Amino acid sequence: PDFIELKGGESIFNPGYTIRTHQNFHPSKGMGGSIGFRFDITKSKTEKVSVAYTTDLEFDFKPGMQPQENAAQLKRDYQHFIAGADVLLVDTEHTKEEYFETKPHVRGWGHPYLEQIIDLAGEAGIRHIIGTHHNKKHTDDILCKIEQQGKEYARAMGFTGELTLARNGLKVSL
Known about the structure:
It contains 4 helices and 9 strands; from the N terminus they run E-E-E-E-E-E-H-E-H-H-E-H-E. By secondary structure, the protein is of the alpha/beta class. Strands 1-2-3-4-7-8-9 form a 7-stranded mixed sheet, with helices on one face. Strand 5 and strand 6 form a beta hairpin. The radius of gyration is 16 Å and the shape is globular.
């Protein structure tokens, strides 16, 4: 098989689909950063579908809870990358409350909070957010509560798409 080393920002064109990549901000600390992927698929002459997969990314903080001076640019670049996607599979490891109040030490680890993703995705015209990369301490019951709170937040903020937290066996029709 052929392997292509990606750094983010590449586009790979094939008949019927294009794969684009995005360099996410994920503190290295031996982890090496991360790449987001977007698949733009042509189903027919009039029907196209796009799916973006972005995990291990953060916008506002660097390691050690240090403010990220490039936060606004990171958010703009990210929104440009995901704009108009039908489905966004995205890291939603924390809630805003955890991120800022109950577990502030996680700021700078490379994972966003759900409400931030809802805001960014809403502005980018995403149709369906599927939250992934769950906190390992979140039980199924906790995730159900977080999902419900996320849906309430999304409605209150004017997000018109769907919000689902990924779970074992979840299937999404494109």
